[in-house]
Predict the structure of Radical SAM superfamily enzyme YgiQ (UPF0313 family).
Amino acid sequence: MARKSLALELYTNADDSTDHRFMRQMREQDAEPVPTDSSLPRFTLVVGPSPFTMPRGWEFFLTSPYEGATYISTVLHNAGYPVRIVDVRYDLDPLKSAYDQIVGQTDVLGICTFEDNFPFCRELMEQVRAAEPDVPIICGGSLVTSVPHVFMESTECDIAVISEGEITILELMESYRAGRWDRDLPGIRGICFGKPDGTWQRTKPRGQMMDLDALPRMRLDLWPQSRGALGLQPQIISSYSRGCKMDCSFCYRTTPQVRAKSQEKMDRDMAWLKSQYGIDFCFFVDLTFSSNRKQTIEICDVVKDYDIRWTCLTRCADMDQPRITAMRDSGADIILYGVESLGTEVLREARKGSSENLTVRAMRTTFDAGVRFGSLLIVGLANETEESLDHMVEFAETYNHVTRVKYLSAMPGTTVYQQAIEAKLIRSEIDHLNWLSVEQALHEDEFLNVSGLPEKVCRDAYKRVYDSYQPGPVMDFKHYPENFQYFHPQPNDGLTRSTSYAGPNWRAKWSSAAGPLVPNSDRFTLDKCASPEVAAAGSSLMACGAKKSAAAFAS
C-alpha cells in the first residue's frame, strides 16, 4: 500500500463508546436543543481575516458562513452553552475588533485557524492572555491540525483540537464546566494541551466520525450577519461528505478519509436550510463531489427538490454522462474541476491521477450537458516547463473556462511543504506561516519558486490565465461588506460564453475582490521571511499587495 503523505493519526476512526455517546447527544439535541443556560461557561468563537481574493461572481464565498465554525457553534448552542461567533473577516483592524468583543465577555475562547491567518491568531492570543490570563484558549481548524507543535510551542494556545472538532469540543466543555480539566485532559483524544510546567502533551488521536448523520442541522443564525441590516445572504456553503480518496502533493485535508451523509440526512439538512434561511445557492465544498457515481446521483435526487442553483468541486476522472445529467437536472450552474496543469510529468509528481485526455473528456462531457466547466489551475508546480505552462495557458485562453488560478502554495502538512523545508525554500515554519498571510491569489503575489522557471515566465502565464476567467455564478450578490477591496478592472469580456452568461462589461469594475489586508502585513513579505535567494526568485519583478499597502500608507 502506498505511504500516506499526511499525519497517520488523521487516518483513524472516532468509534469508541465516548464517541458514540457524544454522537447520540448531537442527534438528541438537534431534535430538541437544550435551552441556553446562562450559568454555563460562555464560549466565543473567533473567525479571523483572510487575504484571499475571489473572482467576479464568487464574492459570496468569502462572506458566507462556513461549515467548520457553524458546526462547532451549533453543537455547543444545542447543548445549552451561551455561544457567540465573532466574525472580523472584513474589519479594517480585525485584531482590535476581535479583542474588544472578547475581553470581559467570555469564559472560553475558541479560534478558527486556517492556512493564511497565523499572525492574527498568534497576536490575538497574546493580547487576550495578557488581559485575561485565566481564560482558556482553544484552537481548531486546518492550520492547527497541520502544525500543532507550532501553536503549542510558539503561541498562547492552551488546547489544539486535531481534525474534526464536534465531538472533541463537547467533551472538552463537559469536562471544563465540571472543573475536571486537570484530571481529564490526558484522556481526551484528539488534542494537544499545555501543561503547568510549560511543556505540552499530545493525546491519542480521535480520528473521523464514522456517521455524519449525527451532525446537527447548521444554525446559521448564530453568525452576526443574521442580525445585520441585510440579514443572512441566501448563498451558503455546505457539504454532504468529508474526506478525499486522492493524495495530491499540494493539498492538505484535515479529514482525509471519505465519509458521507445518507440521502435522508441530506434531505433533512436541505429542508432546514431552505425553510429557515431561504437559501437559493449552495457551494458544496466536498473535495470530490462526484467520486461515487451512485451516491452522486442519489444526492442530486435530493437537491433537485429544493429549487436551488449550486456548484461543487470534483475531479476530471470522476465525470460521465449519468453524473453530469443528474447534476444538471438538480440545478448545477458550474462544476469546478481540479485541473491544476496539463503536463504529464507535472501531474505525476503532484499525484493527481489525471491527464490532459481526462481533462478534455470531462470538459466536453460537461459542456455537452449544458453545464459550465470551471478549471482550477496552478502556476509553478514541480516539473512544469515553459512549454507545458504555455500549453496550459493556451488551453485557458481558447476555452475561456477558468474559475481560479494561483501560484503553488506550500501548505503546511503537505508533501510540497516538507519538500520546501528540506530544500531550504522555507527558512522557518513560523516565517512561512507569517508569509502565507499576505498571499491574495493575484498575479502580483510573491511565490515560492518550486518549479525553477524564470519569475517573468510564471507571472506572464498567471496574468494570461487570470484574464481568461469566466463569470462566477452569483453576479447579483447584494451582501458586499463595507470594507471590501476590488482589484484589476478588465474591459475585455472574454468569449461569448462569458457575455452570454453575465452580460457585457461583467468585470469592467473589478476582476477580483476581498477583504482588506491586515494592517502592517508588509512585515511578512518574502524579503523579511525568506532567504535573499528565495525572495529574488519569486518577488523581484512586482510589488505584492502588502508592499503596495505599506507604500500607500507611507505616502
In short: The domain at 234-468 is CATH 3.20.20.70 (TIM Barrel). DSSP finds 22 helices and 20 strands in the chain. The chain has two domains: 8-209, 234-468. The two ends are 58 Å apart (CA to CA).
